[in-house]
Predict the structure.
Amino acid sequence: MHKLMLAAAALTGLMTALQAAAQFAKPEDAIKYRKAAFTVMGSHFGRIGAMVNGRVPFDAKAAETNIEIATTMSKLPYVAFIEGTDKGETRAKPEIWSEMDKFRTAASTMQDEMAKLNAATKTGNLDAIKAQFGKVGQSCKACHDNYRKE
Ligand code: HEC
């Protein structure tokens, strides 16, 4: 009985440790996942940027479609910064893991700014969209400057 309980406790501990990594079979998978999420987010965010910069005509409906995708994608990359994914095909700096709290704060700042851009986009007011687009861009840059290699 006692042995069984110990075995059960050991198993529970193991499962907890595995949970964080459970989404990804290999570290490379986590790296691929977060890069893909950043790429899709960046692409749809960039389409709004093209309207903000006047490179393409403003289209309120298209802006809404793009910001919905960018908002969803903005929530995805950060679960993939798990232990062991600081090397390989990645530009992530090792500081991410030694300053995880600051990194997470930078991530949630960007997510908040993106949510505000989403709200601004729904108003259809290009000036409001422009102003908030700039704030999101700053939040991307702030994190890249600190935590992404050139
Ligand atoms: C909290 C930090 C953080 C924020 C905020 C952030 N990024 Fe990044 N981004 C990274 C890191 C770290 C990488 C490198 C990932 C890797 O190579 O594993 C990256 C990589 C990328 C890439 C390249 C993906 C690839 O295929 O190599 C793009 C594009 C990108 N980010 C766009 C953006 C945009 C656009 C924003 C703002 C809307 C943004 N990021 C906000 C940390 C951040």
